[in-house]
Amino acid sequence: MRAHHRSRLLAATAAVCALSVALAGCSGTTKKDSKDDAKEKAQNAKADPDAPLKKGLKIAFLPKQINNPYFTVVDKAGIKGIKEFGGKGKEVGPSDPKASSQVSYINTLTQQRQNAILLAANDPNAVCGPLKQAMKQDVKVVSFDSDAGKDCRHVFVNQAGSDRLARQMVQDLSRQIDDKGEIAILSATQNATNQNTWIKIMKDELKKPRYKDVKLVKTAYGDDDDQKSFQETQGLLKAYPKLKGIISPTTVGGAAAARYVSGSKYKGKVVLGGLGTPNQMRKFVKDGTVKEFLLWDAEHLGYLASYAGAALASGQITGKQGESFKAGKLGKYKVGKDGEVVLGPPTVFTKKNIDKYDF
β-pairing, 324-326 with 332-334? Predict the structure, then answer.
């Protein structure tokens, strides 16, 4: 009995070990190797530009937060684009833009076998691991608005060239204060990829001789929360009574800053610039609080992202530089360096043209 029992135990142990090997892989795959598989698979894939867009594709938008008016516009337009090519689109996401808030949604979308996840990253590091796991499961990943990092997605749909956009925000504000005085930046979250990229370029722009009399005194963070951004604006103006201008490279921050200044003694004295949506900023432009601000066409951004996801899922592109695809009514787009697809130049909104736009 003892010998029989021991043989059954050995057999059971062998079965468990065999199953463990099968699950882990027979070549001693490490966690790092596993994560790198997604990148290697993408690099070795072959594009077929003549492949038709597949029908019935499941594509999900995952914004920084679902109660952000800007992302509502972007995602709604993207889902409309998905319907054009016979796919099924949806929007899911957290109600706050915290670093790790998107992780559980990525995992769920991967389990649901979505064909593509379109994501605006709150934090490139927090989402990278889950996105690589999604890519291993043949889920195509498109980052838009705020990049997830080139190793964690196939394509990044950039709303406008980062360098041009950041420098123009500085140039426009500086012109309005006659290239002289103290300025501040009111950003979103401290880990937002796009925000940090723009701020770095803004600081580089400010090193030019033109801005020798312009001083950046503070970078504040409103976390893309209306009330916190409102309070940060108040704090900046209290802490720096000589402040001449505030650049908000976030639509939430731009609208909150304008709301505070419009009802304060600073109206007409402090220049506000940066980004905003026409519908958020219209009343502040018309009452003179804001003279001008920048943004791309938010609807076009979501629409382009949806077609990029479909092109990847259909095999038309893999994310390599030089590949191209057609984005419906927007026409043909080319994949650039590091998988970047640029929507186009930003629009300057003023009192003269703001009523032409509704988003």
Answer: antiparallel
- Report how far residue 212's alpha carbon sits from residue 53's, in angstroms, rounded to the nearest whole number: 53
**Gap between the Cα atoms of 215 and 282, Å rounded:** 29
In one-letter notation, the amino acid at residue 69 is P
pLDDT value at position 5? 45
Cα 271 to the center of its chain, rounded Å: 27
pTM score = 0.81
Query: Do 142 and 155 contact (CB within 8 A), yes or no?
Result: yes
Rounded Cα–Cα distance for residues 16 and 358 (Å) = 61
- Region class of 28: left (phi > 0), else alpha (psi between -120 and 50), else beta: left
Report d(CA 133, CA 250) in Å as an integer: 30
Report yes or no: 112 and 181 within 8 Å, Cβ to Cβ.
Answer: no
**pLDDT tens figures, 231-281:** 999 999 999 999 999 999 999 999 999 999 999 999 999 999 999 999 999
Q: Do residues 148 and 193 touch, judged by C-beta distance below 8 A?
A: yes
DSSP string, 175-219: HHTTT-EEEEEEES-TT-HHHHHHHHHHHHHTTSGGGTTEEEEEE
Q: Residue for token digits 């915290």?
A: 98
